[in-house]
Amino acid sequence: MDKNARTVAFRGGGFAPRGRAWVGFVVFAVLLGAAEWGTRSGLISPLTLPRPSDVVQTFSELYASGLLFAHLLPSLSRLVVGAAFGVSVGISVGLMMGLFSLVRAGLVPLVAAIFPIPKIALLPLFVIWFGIDEGSKYALIAFGTFTPTVVATYTAVDNVDRTLIRMGQSFGLSWLSIVRKIVLPGAMPGILAGLRISLAIAIILLVAAEMLGAEYGIGAYILEAGSLYDLERLFAGVVILSVLGVLVSSAIGAIERRVLNWRT
After folding, report:
1. What is the residue-averaged pLDDT of the chain?
2. Tens digits of per-residue pLDDT, 83-138?
3. Which letter does DSSP use for residue 228 in this model?
4. 19: helix, coil or strand?
5. Average pLDDT score over residue span 41-56
6. Domains of the chain and CATH, by start
7. CA distance 9 to 209
8. N or C terminus of the chain: which is more exposed, having fewer CB within 10 Å?
9. Which of 188, 185, 176, 205 is nearest to 85 (CA)?
10. How does pLDDT run across 149-189, given as a tens digit for each residue?
């Protein structure tokens, strides 16, 4: 072995992201510290932004009174039921559109027609169809998550490398084996990326649905706080939604790390 030889660093990481979760916490801490300092110093008007410490105090009062779970649990129930139905049907329809040309020809124009419609605008129609109780809320969330999931799934299947499919056919794999071993793994990154968008839309629609005809729920809580101009309670509701969004994103990230570990 040559004594002058030197070790070359590995350069084939493929832009693999490194986990630095602490950076996000630092960013949140800096923003909260700046808001606290600005409101206490008078630089920021308390009529514009409440003190973060007052929002924390509001959280403790919500928890002590039991109202936190009284509003949170109905919202989680509506979100889970509506999003689960919309996402499951959306993935199924998107897969059929990507795999079967006849289904694609029939449903692509329909999906293109209903996709741009603001789903919140359909809430009065859903109330007429399903009533003002839970049915209309489930329907709005399901429909709002259905269309972006269909588009993401169909696009992900359509973008699978055709060379891999032809290779599987040349090796004599059956149609079902090609779908299971090539199409689904190749489309999974796009499907999960679409799932992130769909669930974010579901949270938005959840708030809109609860602002109309709901006694309990995060949306109803925010509407009540806004009507009373209670900024501490209003921001407490917004923080709950933000935490919910972070938890949903973290859950999808965990699924990605488990399902897409073949990419590393």
Report:
1. 85
2. 999 999 999 999 999 889 898 888 889 988 988 888 888 888 888 888 888 888 99
3. T
4. coil
5. 82
6. 67-263 (1.10.3720.10)
7. 55
8. N
9. 205
10. 999 999 999 988 888 888 888 888 888 888 888 888 889 98
CA dihedral 184, 190, 194, 195 (to 10 degrees): 50
Q: Are 191 and 156 in contact (CB under 8 A)?
A: yes
| Helix boundaries (H) for 42-174 | 52-65, 67-99, 101-114, 123-130, 134-158, 162-170
* AA identity, residue 188: M
HSE-CB at 206 with a 13 A cutoff on CA atoms is: 30
In the chain the first and final C-alpha atoms are separated, in Å, by 32
pTM of the model: 0.83
Candidates 197, 217, 204, 216; CA nearest to 147 is 197
Between CA 63 and CA 255 the distance in angstroms is 31
